[in-house]
Design goal:
This protein starts with a helix and ends with a strand. The chain contains 6 helices and 16 strands. Strands 1-16-2-3-4-5 form a 6-stranded mixed β-sheet. Strands 6-7-8-9-15-14 form a 6-stranded mixed β-sheet. The protein is an alpha/beta fold.
């Protein structure tokens, strides 16, 4: 009799735990957290001190509210100066409507720039998606850069395209990324404060060597599944127990921000990894 009661208790506790886990997973995947960073640099032009960049990454098929209105409401409260979307705005085999709704809602606000991730490389009619995004006001930087101007000064923004556009697989990723990054030199001088949109976070050493000031990445989805005391379980391109999944990573004069992003790719849910928007405030560090 005692054993039967113990079994019932264990079964009940297990069922309650499973229910709580399911509820937590659903709630977590339908919420968005804003993570704020302050980046200090002596190289930043003084006109850009206090300049706010909102980073959106890995939208995939993420939707929050009808016509993305709940997501847009969160974004509007950030009062940012510029919006960057660091890859995987679109997915193969999907209509792109979630992305169009987001871009449509962003019209009339801060300027929107985006770069291409690995999932966009798989879309055979990508030009149709890009044309629609252009019509909605988003500016694609496909291994291209431009100057952002304010108060008579400027910084350089460069969009680095994912290496999957050059080949399938990972054998030449770093070689391709290096060749893409070299193209930045036609858009900047040595003295320019430079921000790079790069979908993948594991090229930090290449950015440091190139003297990039700020790199904005995504791709890893924060590991998508995180366990207490263990951390991220897996990230594409990095495998098990990945190193680059979230947060700010300083390397020399380079700082890399890795967004957990909003959506999911192959498995449509996250565990202990809440969807994220990043707000990066640039601050001029005065010389002492």
């Amino acid at each position: 009799m005692a054993m039967k009661k113990l079994t019932k208790w264990i079964t009940g506790i297990s069922a309650a735990s499973a229910g709580l886990f399911a509820y937590s997973a659903v709630k977590e995947n339908r919420s968005v957290r804003i993570t704020r960073y302050k980046i200090l640099s002596k190289r930043l032009p003084s006109a850009f001190s206090g300049y706010k960049i909102l980073q959106i990454s890995d939208l995939h098929q993420f939707r929050l509210g009808k016509n993305q209105e709940e997501l847009l409401a969160i974004i509007r409260k950030t009062d940012c100066d510029m919006i960057v979307i660091t890859g995987d705005l679109f997915d193969k085999g999907k209509s792109g409507e979630n992305a169009y709704e987001l871009l449509r809602g962003l019209q009339g606000g801060a300027p929107v720039f985006y770069s291409l991730g690995n999932h966009e490389s798989r879309i055979h009619n990508l030009h149709e998606y890009l044309a629609k995004a252009k019509d909605l006001g988003a500016v694609l930087l496909d291994n291209e850069g431009l100057r952002i101007r304010k108060g008579g000064q400027s910084i350089v923004l460069y969009g680095m395209t994912d290496p999957d556009f050059a080949h399938a697989g990972h054998k030449k990723d770093r070689e391709t990324a290096g060749s893409y990054l070299k193209r930045i030199e036609q858009y900047r001088t040595f003295d320019d404060y430079t921000v790079v949109m790069c979908h993948r976070p594991d090229f930090i050493d290449l950015h440091e060597q190139a003297g990039i000031d700020l790199v904005l990445c995504g791709h890893a989805h924060g590991g998508q599944y995180r366990l207490p005391y263990i951390g991220a379980l897996y990230a594409p391109g990095q495998g098990l127990f990945p190193e680059y999944t979230e947060g700010a990573l300083p390397r020399g004069r380079t700082v890399e921000i890795i967004s957990r992003g909003l959506g999911c790719s192959h498995i449509p849910f996250r565990i202990n990894v809440m969807p994220e928007l990043c707000v990066i405030t640039l601050e001029k560090e005065e010389s002492k």
